[in-house]
Amino acid sequence: MPKSTARAGGVTAPVQTSTPSRAAPSVRGWRDYALLLALACCWSSTYPLTKIALGSIPPVTFISARSLIAALFLLVVLRIRGIRVPTDMKAWKLFAFQQTINSTIPFLVITWAQQFVQASHTVVLASTTPIFAFLITWAITRHEPASPVKLLGAILGLAGTVAIIGLDALSGFGKEIVAEIAILLATVSFACATIFGLRLSDYDPMVVAAGSLLFGGTVLLPAALILEHPWTLHPTPQALVATVTMGIFSSALGLMLFYMCLTRLGTLATNAQAYLRIPIGVALSVVLIGESVPSNLALGLVLVMAGVAAMTVPGDVIKRALGRLRG
Fold first, then answer.
1. Where is the EamA domain (predicted)?
2. Rounded CA gap, 31 and 266, in Å?
3. Is the separation of the CB atoms in 291 and 214 below 8 Å?
4. Distance from CA of residue 222 to its chain's centroid?
5. Are residues 160 and 280 in contact, defined by beta-carbon separation less than 8 angstroms?
6. Among residues 156, 138, 128, 150, which one has the least CA distance to residue 310?
7. d(CA 133, CA 32)
8. Beta-ladder partners of 88
9. Could you give the residue ranges of the DSSP H alpha helices within 56-147?
10. pLDDT (tens digit, 9 = 90+) per residue, 214-239?
């Protein structure tokens, strides 16, 4: 991947750039898939850590706190690396819009909807992001190939998610139709964010993550102060540890890996980590908060891995494999 220099706050520093076409690379190595797995591990911790933190910290305060903690962590690392966050308006407009559609709005919407929708329903609905990303790519943007194999992968991944959560998770859909539609709209927002995020590939992924998180946390801070009076709260030590851990691990490292995956794998393959998050999140929930292991975990995991493979393995590799089978 070519390197160029970009002026950031008066300091010239090397940044990673992508080709103008923004197309996903056709050749991928084990490092690309390791990044995807690392991203899934970071974001899958969201499920149990959020459950722990929200026990004594209200949602807006929690989202703002974890975003600001993540931004502070990344800003310190950037300072050590000798790279400054850009100060020009163009960069901050990009950061602000990306954070709004990738985190601020969807997180608030899903948090509100979870008051009415069961957790299992939320997981299934939120797992439709790769399907929406495929449809948007195929029908509108066409910035990378949207093959039938990738659509099959998206459907297999969703089927694996349902299998892991349990088929009984499908019962009761439609009872809280407004909240369920809200979750679907939030996942559409996530899908759009992965596509728009390609416009940020000229910036260092850590710079994008730091700027986006700083904007998101700062925007929500006044609402948290006015609505939830965080100075009156008495969070448990577990909630504080969960918030800090989620800020550094899930938000800071996760968002940085997200932009790295976008540049290296493209939007459709990056979205495939949504399915990997389910089995990893279930495993973390068992370890951290003692939830039970779903009976269909093995079947769901097979479907999830098949779906992720279909969405991430380059088309020419699949064609060669099918050719060998026919021969």
1. 34-165, 179-311
2. 15
3. no
4. 25
5. no
6. 150
7. 20
8. none
9. 59-81, 89-99, 105-113, 119-126, 129-136
10. 999 999 999 999 999 999 999 999 99
Integer angstrom CA distances of residue 205 from 158, 178, 263, 318:
29, 36, 9, 30
CB 141 within 8 A of CB 222: no
Contact call for residues 293 and 282 (beta carbons, < 8 A): yes
Residues 6+ apart with CB under 8 A from 321: none
Structure tokens at 208: 């994008």
3-state secondary structure of 88: coil
Question: Tokens in use for 315?
Answer: 């088309």
What are the tokens at 147? Answer: 């093959």
Residues 6+ apart with CB under 8 A from 274: 126, 127, 129, 130, 157
Q: What is the per-residue pLDDT across 239-297, written as a single tens digit (0 to 9) for each?
A: 999 999 989 998 899 989 988 888 888 887 888 887 777 777 777 777 776 766 666 76
Q: Are 170 and 123 in contact (CB under 8 A)?
A: no
Q: What is the pTM of this model?
A: 0.72
- Collapsing DSSP to helix, strand or coil, 11 comes out as strand
Query: Residue holding tokens 């690396």?
Result: 81
Copy the structure tokens of residue 132: 């929406």
